[in-house]
Structures are given as structure tokens and as C-alpha cells.
Write a structure and sequence with these properties.
This protein is mainly beta and 422 residues long. It contains 4 helices and 31 strands. The protein folds into 2 domains: 150 residues, TolB, N-terminal domain (Rossmann fold); 255 residues, TolB, C-terminal domain (Neuraminidase). The strands form 8 sheets. Strands 3-2-5-6-7 form a 5-stranded mixed β-sheet, sandwiched between helices. A 4-stranded antiparallel β-sheet has the order 10-9-8-31, with no helix packed on it. It has a 4-stranded antiparallel β-sheet with strand order 11-12-13-14, with no helix packed on it.
Length: 422
């Protein structure tokens, strides 16, 4: 693929094509590319003009690759010219589509070309802030990537999402591609965090003092939702965002409680009878809660109705083995619950299919724990020590491909955001 003949061929990629007769499709309408079933369509991201062109192209290409639904193809930026595609050459290279982004005074002008039909399938203008606001500018380009993926595949991407995690006694936030990591809190010893359904707020717990704290990301304002004696741990929002559910207790055991975000008294949902009941995770419809409980003598994954009734053991009991199953997270499509399971002396990420209760092990290298679903229901972020220190990794549950999300100081206890507003 690095041969001089290919480089020369790529130089012919972009030829002039009039835009006056272009067909257009609105956002969210699948283009309907032609490619072999069971394969990922090849998408060539063409060079982008302007001072920020290389950065724009790199972000679009990486975002499409990280979505794992298309084969994001690139060419040596020095070997191709900005313009419209050479259909025959693109087809020969295996591209089903080509993307051309052009900076404008107000943002980006994007055209998507359908190679098989030799037509312009999508034309759209996207607003973007000045590149001097680096985080907002990158977020705008991520939103373009997600729109492109939805148009190309029918499924919206996850580029315009972020991941919370704990590092150095602070809550941090990082973009879905591992860039723009920043600390969010300076509160001492936060131990777990979660996103609001809108993505505008987060909630986290602290050990000293023992509290559940709500933080507005835009203003930075914080408010204590619950606190006092004992421990407060693993808070999450209800799917409608009106209440929080979390673990609260003492040395005599931890139960799951709920409290309204607007303020009010807390109410106990689970009755653990001296065991620990923590890590609640809601089903997408809000009717059930998965949680970890030690009521059987060792940690297992259970579910219950949102009011605490109708408790059901999800994970099968394994007699003769000391099971340790923890940190459940319900998938956005409602089919699976991910958790970590002790296997051969180490923790591995596992899913349980709620239809037939079958288990599927997803990891094997190193120690892997605390999975959190992306909003596409396909990718998981989790903590792994496979390279030595604890870092966050992202796994595509369909292909098995994994990528490292964080680097540097150890990171753990991640929570993937919902799709964030553009």
C-alpha cells in the first residue's frame, strides 16, 4: 500500500465535479451504500484545505475508525489534491464512499460521495466555533463525525461523547478518542461518578466527608444530595433524571436507596439483611435495576423492580467456586448486562444475555473490571492493567478490537456519557 505507483494513483483522486446538480439528504437519512454484506464499507476521508485541515481530517478519520462500523481509509495528504473524487480509482481502492470537508467562515461544508452510484449522496453545512476554543472546536468536529456515521450506516456514532473517570483523587473527563482530558472536580477522594441523562450534570460520591454530590458541568456549581454517617457509594440517575439511586450503609451492611434530585428525604429500596448491596444500574425503560449483592455469601448480580420488589438472581450460582461478580451496567438496548467476574484468579469483563442467561467472556489479558456501556450499545469502556498500570480501554464487543483510551497516571472507575448535544 506504500508503493510509488499507488502514491501516483492517489494523486489523481480529486478531479473537478460541479456541485450545482448535487442530490442532498437530510440528517439521519441512510445513504444506502453498496458493499458486501458482513463487511465494513470503505470510506475515504479526503484531504481538507486550510490551516486546520490536517487536524479536521485526522479527527474525522479517527472517529469513523473508532466507531468500528466502517473501514476509515486514508491517503498520504501530500499525494492527493483537495477536490472531488475519481470514481474509478476510488472503486479500485475499495472505497464505497468518500468524504470531503471544506472549512467555511461559519464551520464546515461536507459532501459525501457514493462511489458505486457515482453521485453526491449528501451535502450539508455544519456550524463550528473558532479553533481558538479547542475543546468546543473538537466537539463540533466530533458531531460531524457522528452525523456522517449515521448517514453512512444508519447508526449514529459515539464520537461526540465523553468518559468520566477517577485519577489522583479527582474526577476527570476525556473525549471518546482519548483527547482533551481535564479534571472536573477537586473534591477529596471521589470514588464513583455517573452522568445525568442529558449529559449536563454529573453525580459522584466521596469518602471524606461521606456524601453524594451533584455537579452542573456548565456552571461548576455543586450541591449535596445525601450525606452523613456511614458510606455513600455508586450513585446513578434514574432514566428520567428526577432522582438518584445509590448505596448507603455502614459496617452492618449497605443497601440501595433513592433520593430526589430536587431535594427531599431518601428512601430504602433493597433489604440486604447485613449484606452489601451496591452498584445500581437501570434498564433503559427504568423499570428494573441491576445491582451487586452479597446476600448469597459472595457477590452476585441481581435485578429488582425500580421500587425494590421482585428481586431476581441474574448470574448463575457456581457451586464449588468462589464467585465474585460486580459492577453491573445495563446495555442501552436492554439485552445485556455487563459486569466483571473473577475467572482463574483475575477479573474479566463478562456479559449476560437476559433472554437466555448465557454468559460471554469479553476480555482475557490482565485484570479487567468496572465496564460501562457507550450509548451505541456496542462499545464498553473498562479499567485494565494489561500494559502494567491501570488505564481505561475501549472494547468493540462485536469485533473484539480494543484500544487504549487513557495514558499516564493510573485511571479507573469510568462512566461513559450519553450522546451529548451538538
Amino acid at each position: 500500500m506504500r508503493s510509488s505507483s499507488l502514491v501516483r494513483a492517489l494523486a489523481a483522486l480529486c478531479l473537478a465535479l460541479p456541485l450545482a446538480a448535487q442530490d442532498t439528504l437530510s440528517r439521519g437519512v441512510r445513504i444506502g451504500l453498496s458493499y458486501d454484506p458482513g463487511t465494513r464499507p470503505g470510506v475515504m476521508v479526503l484531504p481538507v484545505s486550510g490551516a486546520a485541515g490536517d487536524s479536521i481530517r485526522a479527527i474525522l478519520q479517527r472517529d469513523l475508525a473508532n466507531g468500528d462500523r466502517v473501514n476509515a481509509m486514508g491517503a498520504d495528504a501530500g499525494a492527493v489534491r483537495v477536490g472531488s473524487p475519481n470514481w474509478a480509482l476510488l472503486a479500485r481502492l475499495g472505497a464505497a464512499a468518500a468524504v470531503q470537508a471544506t472549512p467555511t467562515p461559519s464551520g464546515l461544508h461536507v459532501a459525501v460521495y457514493d462511489v458505486a452510484k457515482q453521485r453526491t449522496a449528501l451535502v450539508k453545512d455544519y456550524p463550528a466555533p473558532s479553533s481558538s476554543d479547542a475543546r468546543a472546536w473538537r466537539a463540533a468536529v466530533h458531531a460531524v463525525s457522528d452525523d456522517l456515521e449515521e448517514s453512512l450506516t444508519g447508526t449514529r456514532g459515539i464520537a461526540r461523547t465523553r468518559v468520566l473517570f477517577e485519577r489522583g483523587k479527582r474526577i476527570w473527563m476525556v473525549d471518546s478518542d482519548g483527547e482533551s482530558a481535564i479534571p472536573v472536580t477537586d473534591t477529596a477522594i471521589p470514588i464513583s461518578s455517573a452522568w445525568s441523562p442529558s449529559g449536563g450534570q454529573i453525580v459522584f460520591s466521596t469518602l471524606i466527608p461521606a456524601q453524594i454530590i451533584l455537579r452542573d458541568l456548565a456552571s461548576g456549581r455543586e450541591r449535596v444530595i445525601a450525606g452523613g454517617n456511614g458510606v455513600y457509594i455508586s450513585p446513578v440517575f434514574t432514566p428520567d433524571g428526577s432522582s438518584l439511586v445509590y448505596g448507603h450503609g455502614s459496617d452492618d451492611g449497605v443497601d440501595i436507596y433513592t433520593a430526589p434530585v430536587a431535594g427531599g428525604s431518601q428512601r430504602r429500596l433493597s433489604v440486604g439483611r447485613g449484606s452489601d448491596n451496591v452498584s445500581p444500574s437501570f434498564s433503559p425503560d427504568g423499570r428494573r435495576i441491576a445491582f451487586m449483592s452479597g446476600r448469597a455469601g459472595h457477590p452476585e448480580i441481581y435485578s429488582m423492580d425500580a421500587d425494590g420488589t421482585n428481586v431476581d438472581l441474574l448470574t448463575p450460582l457456581e457451586f464449588g467456586e468462589q464467585a465474585f461478580r460486580a459492577s453491573p451496567d445495563w446495555s442501552p438496548d436492554g439485552r445485556l448486562v455487563a459486569f466483571h467476574n473473577q475467572i482463574a484468579g483475575s477479573y474479566q469483563v463478562v456479559t449476560i444475555n437476559l433472554r437466555d442467561r448465557s454468559l460471554r467472556q469479553l476480555t482475557s489479558d490482565g485484570r479487567n473490571e468496572d465496564p460501562s456501556w457507550a450509548p451505541d450499545g456496542r462499545h464498553l469502556v473498562f479499567t485494565s492493567n494489561r500494559t502494567g498500570s491501570r488505564q481505561l480501554w475501549v472494547l468493540d464487543t462485536e469485533s473484539g478490537r480494543s484500544r487504549q483510551l487513557t495514558h499516564g497516571a493510573p485511571a479507573r472507575l469510568s462512566a461513559w456519557s450519553p450522546r451529548l448535544p451538538n
